[in-house]
Write a structure and sequence with these properties.
By secondary structure, this protein is an alpha/beta fold. 42% of the residues lie in helices and 15% in strands. The protein has 10 helices and 7 strands.
Length: 259
């Protein structure tokens, strides 16, 4: 039998599952967990091949395979909260295992990360560059990606330091895992399926985000008319780091209203 992914659980109450983004790991959620564990059961989980699950790799590294592994590890109804790539994975779990999902929250995420002719996103050239840099110097590439997380933040150096100190405490993913998971950002497109999500759905964005441009927000509104959205006016790609108080207040307010 395949090994189950390791999870970390703190607190009691309604179950919240936090899924991290590309290149990082579940340690990124520690400040958030500290604030929420007095009210909720807060579960954090590393993607296959990342952090505490660095030895559990997948081949092929597909969105359905990752979603299945995470859902099996949680194994109970929960509210899924995903950041960036984690939001895409949480969306897949919501679509594939609706009975196991009570609600969905995506943070600085998009159903289609790659820029299209009429769709704002990450330029294909940037993703190609990341693939090439990974082959040359994995650590340097991740360090560069950390800087992009905070780009546009009013306290960028502080944010980068916080993110780096958190994620470097856990094992780094292999170049192959980073390359395979980066391909998900390039190839996955869930736009046509967003309308199928019927449970409570909150989308959170940073107005200064360079990876998920604010122009995409009204376009996703049209694709998911049942969902709600919240915009951090002065945040970039990691609002739960740069604006922790506002993030926790907005999230708890929505959770209290819906559950």
């Amino acid at each position: 039998m395949a090994e189950t992914l390791h999870i970390t659980s703190e607190g009691q109450g309604q179950t919240l599952v936090f899924i991290h983004g590309w290149g990082l790991n579940s340690a990124i959620w520690q400040p958030t967990v500290a604030r929420l564990k007095t009210q909720y059961e807060v579960i954090t989980i590393d993607l296959p091949g990342f952090g505490l699950n660095v030895d559990q790799t997948l081949s092929p590294y597909s969105l359905p395979a990752v979603a299945k592994k995470i859902q099996q590890a949680i194994n109970k109804p929960a509210i899924y909260i995903g950041w960036s790539l984690g939001g895409l994975i949480a969306t897949e779990i919501s679509l594939s295992y609706p009975a196991q999902v009570l609600g969905l929250v995506t943070i600085a995420s998009s159903p289609c990360f790659t820029q299209q002719s009429v769709w704002p996103g990450i330029a294909a050239e940037m993703l190609t560059l990341f693939h090439r840099q990974l082959a040359e110097d994995t650590k340097k590439t991740i360090d560069g990606f950390l800087k992009i997380q905070a780009m546009g933040s009013p306290h960028i150096r502080q944010d980068i330091k916080i993110i780096r100190n958190l994620v470097m405490a856990y094992p780094m993913a292999s170049r192959q895992t980073l390359d395979d998971s980066l391909a998900l950002l390039e190839t996955v497109d869930k736009r046509a399926q967003l309308s199928l999500i019927s449970h409570p759905f909150l989308r959170m964005y940073g107005k200064l985000d360079g990876l998920v441009p604010k122009k995409v927000v009204p376009m996703i509104n049209d694709l998911s008319t049942q969902s709600e959205h919240y915009i951090f006016e002065k945040a970039s790609h990691a609002p739960f780091i740069s604006h922790l108080d506002e993030f926790v207040n907005a999230l708890v307010s929505w959770l209290s209203a819906k559950f």
